Amino acid sequence: MKKPKKKNEFLYFALRNNKLRVGLTIVLLFLVLSFIGPMLTHNEPFAYANPGGAEPPSSAYWFGTTFFGQDVFAQFAHGLRATFLVGIIGGGLGTLIGILVGFTAGYRGGIVDEILNVFTNIVLVIPTLAVLLIIAAYLEVRSILMECIFIGFTAWPWAARAIRAQTFSLRTREFVDLARMSGMKSLKIIFTEIAPNMMSYLVMTFILQFGGAILNAATLDFIGLGPTNAVSLGLMMQVAVLWGALQLGSWWWFVPPGLAITAIVGALYVMNVGLDEVFNPKLREM
Amino acid sequence: MRRYFGRKLLIYILTFFLAVTIDWLIPRFMPGDPIANVMARIGAVVNPGAAQKMYDYFSRVFGLDLPIWQQYLNFWNALFHGDLGISVYLFPTPVTRVLMRAVPYDVFLLIPSILLSWYAGNKFGAFAARSRWLDNTISPLGYVLTASPYMWLGILLAWVFGIVLGIFPIAGAYSFTMRPHLSWAFVGSVLHHWFLPFISLFLVGFGGQAIGMRNMIIYELEADYSHYLEALGAPRRLVRKYAFRNAILPQITGLALKLGVIIAGALVTEVVFSYPGIGYLLLAAIQNQDYFLIQGCFLFIIISVLLANFAIDIAYVIIDPRTRRGMTGEAA
User: Fold this and answer.
1) Cβ–Cβ < 8 Å for A140, B30
2) Are residues B211 and A219, on separate chains, in Cβ contact within 8 Å?
3) Is the pLDDT of residue A230 over 60?
4) Chain B: residue whose CA lies nearest to A158
5) What element of type H or E holds A22?
6) Least confident segment among A96-100, A198-202, B238-242, B317-321
7) Residue A254 backbone phi and psi in degrees, to 5
8) How is residue A71 annotated by DSSP?
9) Can you tell me the mean pLDDT for B29-56?
10) Rounded to a whole number, what is the distance in Å from the CA of A286 to chain B's nearest CA?
11) What pLDDT, on the 0 to 100 scale, is given for residue B33?
């Protein structure tokens, strides 16, 4: 095997890792579809386009129509956008809070660590969905952005715990001591000495938060507590079940949204394992 | 060990305290007058005399004229007497009784699905790490299962086995033509209705556990102690055994972390199959703005999650001798 140059080592292994390639391809495929999908159809997601009611997929309606004659493909394409939005904003927020809490607790240690640790554990134990349910039930009008914020604010504890543990072990290394002795500010040490050494870890945390946020959003939407003014994949499934798509055999109505979520989240998980192999030489398949 | 349990207990007590406070805030958070809201819902259902009685009852229970701190203390007091108020949606049944009716279904659904999926997932995950052939079949399956939203798997199973093949019922906990009684026919009907929700919860859990275990075993087999054992010429079986024992520890912690997600999954699964557990009840309570019932369900979920976490902590102490000797406070 040719020895790759140090600089391109990550890229060298990343491009040769099958798990990463497959996962990334699937996610990108859906991302592209969420961008161009809404342009491929003239129908608005909630418009009653087909007077015939529920009809199976045809050339006019690629994914068929709902009980009300709405274009399933239009709903699906717009719903994909909502899904990626929730993943990026909700997952991003969860990661960010996890990073802030984890770095602070891990680097400071002592009493700050104790307090943050107890707080993290409390949020960790309270079932987030029960809390989300109640918050969502209070708000009569909800937007996708609000949903992202709810999800981000409740999903961070495990990330904070994992990042704290990593920071804790890095804190006592010589290079960090050296930086401290040279009079560097704590914040600068965290961002220039500690964070770069666990970058791979942070990226993987974000990917898992991304997937988790999508699943959380689907659950909320399905119980009818999702956004009230937008279309989403979870909402499609809720309406389908509510209006008897099962009994009517309208499989084209409830199969695509769930399939898309499964494919995206599954691809993210596979990507994560691939990245792990790329970053951790011990796990690479030879 | 005392330190370990002391810390855990402190966290559980704080969590419980916080949860009850959130619970207390529920009706008080609502915009507008909660009693008026409740009454507006009742008005159409009961006669004026009963409505007046209910108004008095709600005023007394909410005690909105009392100082805030006294309302809060009263709530705790009522809680310790097992008084969770009266359900509005199922008037006039006390919330405690409504919950007690739903609990058996949840226990019956959740405990087998959690334990079996954990056990089977770990077994198959460990097998998958062992052979390439199994890895290529179980791992992709595991990723698909763990990534699929609970309700979607439920919907698919309901559609395929309930509608297309027509071999399983897709609503209720027993046949609508039966009344609960002790007979083989009734037990059969209960099991028949239980199977699809159970298998749907089981499959999602199984996928996650299998993937987790497979990855953990691969980590452990690359650890120094495994290489050392191999270098000593230990049989592969023995090395695998040690790897499995070490890999099981994070899987136990992982189960505790996942409880919230599993509960949420059970909730939507119950909705898909109209299975009369707490999840189904909570949804009905929210749709009917039944605050007492929402409070009761929330409290019940919190208490059971705390108990489950505590059970997992005890299991951890039994399995990992280091916690007993007070060597680790962090890992668990």
Assistant:
1) no
2) no
3) yes
4) B257
5) helix A18-40
6) B317-321
7) -105, -15
8) B
9) 63
10) 14
11) 59
pTM of the model: 0.86
Find the length of chain A.
286
In chain A, residues 102-121 whose CB comes closer than 8 Å to chain B: 118, 121
Minimal Cβ distance to B11: which of A122, A131, A222: A122
Q: Is A190 on the interface with B (CB under 8 A)?
A: no
Collapsing DSSP to helix, strand or coil, B158 comes out as: helix
Integer Cα distance of A247 and B162 in angstroms: 9
Tokens of B277: 């557990």
Least confident of A55-59, A91-95, A221-225: A55-59
In this prediction, residue B311 carries a pLDDT of 87
Q: Do B282 and A222 touch (CB under 8 A)?
A: no
Which tokens belong to A152?
A: 């981000």
Helices (H), B63-92: 68-80
pLDDT tens by residue, A68-115:
778 888 889 889 999 999 999 999 999 999 999 999 988 887 888 888
Q: Chain B residues with CB inside 8 Å of A265's CB?
A: 147-148
| Segment holding B3, helix H or strand E | helix B2-29
Best interface-test mutation with B: which of A76, A113, A126 has the largest number of B CBs within 10 A? A126
Helix or strand or coil: residue B223?
coil
- B93's CB contacts (< 8 A; 6+ apart) are B86, B87
Helix (H) or strand (E) holding B307: helix B291-319
ipTM of predicted complex: 0.84
pLDDT number for residue B330: 44
pLDDT tens digits along B177-196: 777 777 888 888 888 889 99
Q: If you ran DSSP here, which 8-state letter would residue A48 be given?
A: -
Kindly state the DSSP code that residue A282 receives in the 8-state scheme.
Answer: G
CB pairs under 8 A between A and B: 144
Min CA distance, B151 vs chain A (Å)?
Answer: 8
